[in-house]
Amino acid sequence: MIIRTVLHTLRNQLLRGAIARPFRPIESPGNRIVLVRPDHFGDLLLLTPAIEYLQQHLPDHEITLMTGPWNEAVARHVAPEIEVLTWPFPGFDRNSGTRSPLDPYRDIARAAETVRDRSPRAILLLRDDHWWGAWMAREAGIPIRVGYNNSDVAPFLTHSMEIERANYARQNLEMVQRSISLLGGENASYDESHPSLTWPVHESARSSIQEVLGEHGVSDRYVIIHPGTGAPVKTWPTRRWAALADQLTRRSNCQVLLTGSADERQICAEVDTWSGTSLLNLAGQTTLFQLAELFRGAALVLGVDSGPLHLAVATGTPSVHLYGPSDHVRYGPWGDPDHHRVIRAGMTCPACGDLSPERSPNCGCMAAIQSNEVAQVAIEMLHEY
Which structural domain, as residue segments, surrounds residue 257? Predict the structure, then answer.
């Protein structure tokens, strides 16, 4: 706690000094727009409607997406027409190891020069509290710097925006829409029923996953349970998943499949062990692109708040999302609420929003969700879709 306080004080002092420091403006900016999204897979998917909207309404501008190297393959797949610039953003790089507390600040100058070399006209910071990106944008001398009206971010910007708290896909769209008029484009409104998450078909992945399903004798409708997630506190008890799998097997004509990353083999194995029915456990056996095509062919995908559940939405497959400590308003599925259902107990506590790895799994608001409730919603959706 003491170390955290010291680091926070250091950060505030450096921020004040950076705000007062002069910077070197870009002398001859081009028509490039840089979008900054430092977060991980699911957050990048929630940006895809805004990228499409920007391309439609500013076709004469070039777009660079600045994101983490962990998102590179995804970014190139969902937005192949734009430049992808990767940077290991401090605080988001899960493989950074032990670093000096000053390294994130040293990185700002290097990142600023990398962005400056592209002579952008504008930069849009699409995470509301990303002071590091805002500082970097000012250091790069970008003429138009757009972001949220956050106390740590706004002093570095030329245009700070108050945007109503909503699903992040909607917030991204609103920031892009407002920015278009700043750049001389026609500020057309968008229909929320139109912009959707996108995930183009990956042909080789589709062929290979069809082979896998054939090898395991999966030829009829199947349901996918994806129980893993990036934060332990967001997980649902494995026995509940097992009980749900048993109910789905008995009450529908669908085979139940388990999916997950290599790191999620254990949680899937536990679900498989507790289940009284025969499940097909594919955890750790698919690439991300194969997982997407597996989702695309499913009748229904169920899981907790995670990037892969946003992937299921992007493939157009009906989905059920269990939410507890994470914010379902901002990070929930972007799509038809009848097609993509959110289930939550409705409990709140002072720790809501704290997804730190130190928090233990199966917190109260997740444990309060009952398998019978989830099964009933799932069966209704299977009959409807």
Answer: 203-384
